[in-house]
Amino acid sequence: MGASEWQGDADPATAARLGGPGLFEEVQDLVQVGTWEWEVATGRLWWSHQTDRILGAAVGAIAPTYERFIEAVHPEDRRVLWHRITEALEGRQEFDLRHRVVRPDGEVRYVRGQARVRRSAAGTPVTMLGTLLDVTDDALLHAERDEAVARLAESEEKYRLLAENAYDVIWTMGVDGAITYVSPSVERVRGITPAEAMAQTLDQIHPPSTAARVAEYFGQLYASMAAGTVPPTYHGEHEYYRKDGSLMLGDLQVTPQVNSDGQVVQILGVTRDITAQRQFEEALARSEQQFRLAMVSAPIGMAVVDLDRRFVRVNPALCLMLGRSERWLLDRGIADLFQANPEADERDRQVRRQLLAGIDSATNDERMVTAAGEDLIVTHAIGLLRDEHGTPLWYVSQFVDNTETRRAQDQLEFLATHDAMTSLANRAHLLDVLATVLVGFQQGGGRPGVLFIDLDNLKGINDTHGHAVGDQVIVALAEQLRISTRPGDLAARIGGDEFVVVLHDLPDVRTAAEMAEVIQRELSAGLATDGGLIVPTVSIGLALAESADDAEALLTRADQALYRAKQAGRDRIAVDDATRDGG
Question: Is the pTM of this model over 0.70?
Answer without folding.
Answer: no
